[in-house]
Amino acid sequence: MKALENKCSANDAMIKNYLLPKFSAGSLLLGGKLFHMRCSAHILNLIVKDGLDVIGDGIEKVRETVTYWSQSSRRLELLEDTAIRQLKMKSSKKLVLDCKTRWNSTYLMLEVALVYKEVFIRLQQRDNQYKNLPSESEWELAKVMCEHLNPFYKLTNLFSGTKYPTTNLFFPMICEIRLSLKSWLDSKVEVIRLMATNMTPKFEKYWDKIHGVIAVAAVLDPRYKMDLIDYFFPRMYEIDCELETQRIFELCNDLVSEYQAKEKGGLGEDIGESGVGSGFTSSSSSSSMWDVKGFESYKRKHGRQRKLTSELETYLEQEEISKIKVYQRLGLKFLKN
């Protein structure tokens, strides 16, 4: 853990002391204000690792069970025979033994082990050397852990996905993660409360102020604009909501002003009449990872209305477009989820 945090500190020092001085202020957007953005997958890894520290030996029996039944081909054959012939299971998932330094492997281990829970119970009757069957409370802990780690696992896959999703997709999921941690603090399950207590300080250390690049990308998504900021920030920032909202708006405004001053094909040219830039990416799978319906309901009731004083505000006041319209304007066939 300390090594991961030291890596962040080393990166900060390298950016500040070695890279930024190599560039003239005028060559970087906003004088380099947005130059450094920490690796989101790395930050997520730090947050979850702090949460898993509180589990202790709570899932050790599950780990021992997976280890035992993965050790030899004979045991694997017995497991498959019990699953397919006796219990008529159709799952073809392979047991996953985790690496303790990689939390996502622990998630996968628990997820697959839960599938074979009844198989392990039956195997205890067939193999008298198998002594590590988890208790019902330990299975319940594994289930609760899987349910709560699932959003983190999906977001990690999105960050490191081979299809390279665009940054506009990250913002709502990071916000949902923060709101989840907030709700976990009031959980009836003690281990979840402890996890949230451990994870929240790390989240606030790195993501208390949503990085400008991520927020601007969400604003420039013609489905969301500032309405997505208005939807999430009051639930995330009880005290500094207006301040944080204004920070994002002013950042967008500063970027537009700088592009206009440099005469490098302003924002309006990139977005065009359709409101879709050439780099726009839509992902139906990512949409299911956060409360899209809640946002749509909010937008219908509380959508922004402003006096138009700039090109940015003119863009923000244009009607948001739906996913179907995006696909139509890009000339693509829309596939329903």
UniProtKB/TrEMBL annotation:
One of its GO terms (molecular function) is DNA binding. It holds the Pfam family hAT-like_RNase-H. Residues 160-259 form the hAT-like transposase RNase-H fold domain. It comes from the Eukaryota. SUPFAM superfamilies: Ribonuclease H-like. PANTHER family: BED FINGER-RELATED, ZINC FINGER BED DOMAIN-CONTAINING PROTEIN RICESLEEPER 2-LIKE ISOFORM X1. This is hAT-like transposase RNase-H fold domain-containing protein.
